[in-house]
Design goal:
By secondary structure, the chain is an all-alpha fold. The protein is 76% helix and 0% strand. It has one domain.
């Protein structure tokens, strides 16, 4: 085993985000192909959010945490902790699937409102990322 550097906790978070982005890219592309194949565009919200949020935003989160890892290698950054980054990761990865599930639940029963709750969770994850990245930018 090698020695660890302070940036190590952020690298796995970045890798997990990139892996999640690849999963959402694959699912979003398959769903899009299925929508074309069957001539059914009822899943545009699901398809769009898989690609835009799941792929684009999660890849941006991964890039941001990879950048933070490169800054932390020289020491610690005030207000930027791996524990907070892990909380942000799990909020994002609970928020998006919940929002996607809520988008396909029946509207008449009000179950689709579940998507709104998870959308707020996703928004909190985005704000927490913005806070972490702004602290990292201020410290460099």
């Amino acid at each position: 085993m090698g020695t660890s550097t302070p940036g190590d906790p952020f690298r796995p978070i970045a890798r997990r985000y990139f892996r999640a982005a690849l999963v959402y890219l694959s699912l979003g592309l398959l769903l899009g192909a299925g929508m074309i194949w069957f001539g059914n565009d009822n899943f545009q919200f699901l398809h769009g959010h898989m690609l835009l949020v799941g792929t684009g935003l999660f890849a941006a989160y991964g890039a941001g945490f990879r950048w933070i890892a490169s800054r932390v290698d020289g020491g610690s950054l005030p207000g930027v902790s791996a524990a907070t980054a892990n909380v942000q990761f799990w909020l994002a990865n609970v928020g998006l699937p919940g929002m996607l599930a809520g988008s396909v639940l029946p509207v008449g029963l009000g179950l689709d409102r579940v998507g709104v709750l998870f959308g707020f969770i996703e928004a909190v994850a985005g704000l927490l990322f913005a806070l972490l990245l702004s602290r990292a930018l201020r410290s460099t």
